[in-house]
Write a structure and sequence with these properties.
globular; two-stranded antiparallel ribbon
């Protein structure tokens, strides 16, 4: 999906009802080429200059209250609720802010 004005790829990942495309491949984010996070995935993200690690709790696809703020998500622009391993606090991030971590 490209922006009509600039021709650049849009920053949002395309959400799909099925995790697989027509060729039997996992759907990937248009910008980064990464697989979209799924519930239970161990991920990391930047928080105040440091890296935080945690687990994806759920995918948010509609405007709602989560982690103490209003999340303006949609099917085309999903966000993910994550829980920090260190503090146990919840946060909400766009998929491009999350990096999948290897278990271990």
């Amino acid at each position: 999906m490209r922006s009509p004005s600039t021709g650049l790829a849009l920053a949002a990942c395309v959400s799909a009802r099925l995790p697989w495309n027509s060729r039997g491949e996992r759907r990937r984010c248009l910008v980064s080429g990464k697989q979209q996070p799924r519930k239970g995935d161990r991920v990391s993200w930047k928080s105040h200059g440091a890296e935080t690690t945690g687990e994806v709790e759920k995918k948010i696809t509609e405007r709602t209250e989560a982690a103490g703020r209003t999340v303006d998500a949609s099917d085309q622009d999903p966000q993910y609720q994550v829980r920090s391993e260190k503090s146990g606090r919840r946060a909400v991030h766009k998929p491009q802010a999350l990096r999948r971590k290897k278990d271990g």
